[in-house]
Design brief:
- This is Ig-like domain-containing protein.
- InterPro entries: Ig-like_dom, Ig-like_dom_sf, Ig-like_fold, Ig_sub, Ig_sub2, Immunoglobulin_dom, Zig-8.
- It holds the Pfam family ig.
- Keywords: Membrane, Transmembrane, Transmembrane helix.
- This protein has about 240 residues and is mostly beta strands.
- About 15% of the residues lie in helices and about 40% in strands.
- It contains 3 helices and 17 strands.
- It has a 5-stranded antiparallel β-sheet, with no helix packed on it. The chain has a 5-stranded mixed β-sheet with strand order 10-17-16-12-13, with no helix packed on it.
- The protein starts with a strand and ends with a helix.
Length: about 240
């Protein structure tokens, strides 16, 4: 955040930076008057340009800052700081279901990032993944970075919590479920599940003491047999 004042004579007066939100004097010359070591003022060598530096900028730092020179009349220069907060997410649901042995790609997307993200670290159950061959980082736009974690063949030990942690940004997590079943319910079944017809066989299955879905064919055969026997009995009974 620089502010420069040019004149035909060197500026010997004090130069202050003031935060307009609360009229707090942050710095006077090279001295800092706020209990936050992120603030620092310095003068470029051989110039009258004074710079206020704010390290690790946060959303609360947004607003107006005024550079004041203690001349008479006072010289001042106003600067507005806009803080763009990057967004970070792992694509897909927070609970991810995959088949055993399938290839998995977890994509961590960072948008609204003015500066290119230096590093993206991945953690599995709070342990950092050190194999760099499994992690790809690419800049896909002027403000977008994608960090991809590749699992070539998912195993049961790959299940668990995965965290994407870029440098100087908040982290985000997702949970990976590795399923043994070839047709897991979480992946294959919707609201109208194919298993619903089993409900109609519950009374008969309970009577037979068998599993509802496995016994439906036997129950159907029993009903058909009962129907055929009843029909034969009625056929051979003479009419009165």
């Amino acid at each position: 955040m620089p502010a420069a004042f040019k004149s035909f004579f060197p500026i010997k007066e004090n130069v202050s930076w003031v935060r307009k939100r609360d009229s707090h004097i942050l710095t006077v010359d090279r001295y800092t008057f706020v209990g936050d070591d992120r603030y620092q003022a310095f003068q470029a060598d051989g110039t009258d340009a004074w710079t206020l530096q704010i390290k690790f900028v946060q959303p609360r730092d947004a607003g107006q800052y005024e550079c004041q020179v203690s001349t008479e009349p006072k010289l001042s220069h106003m600067v507005t700081l806009n803080v763009v907060v990057p967004r970070i997410e792992i694509l897909g649901d927070q609970d991810i279901h995959v088949k055993l042995g399938s290839q998995v790609e977890l994509k961590c997307v960072i948008t609204q990032s003015i500066e290119e993200t230096g590093f993206i670290f991945w953690y599995h159950n709070n342990r950092r993944i050190l194999d760099s061959k499994l992690i790809k980082i690419e800049r896909t736009g002027s403000d977008t970075t994608v960090g991809t974690l590749v699992i070539l063949s998912a195993k049961q030990t790959d299940a668990g919590n995965y965290t994407c942690a870029p440098t100087n940004l908040q982290s985000v997590s997702a949970y990976l479920h590795v399923l043994m079943d070839e047709h897991p319910a979480a992946m294959q079944r919707g609201k109208n599940s194919a298993s619903l017809p089993c409900i109609w066989w519950v009374p008969f299955s309970v009577a037979l003491g068998m599993d509802t879905c496995l016994s439906r064919h036997l129950t159907l055969m029993a009903l058909l047999s009962f129907y055929l026997i009843s029909s034969l009995v009625l056929f051979f009974i003479p009419e009165s």
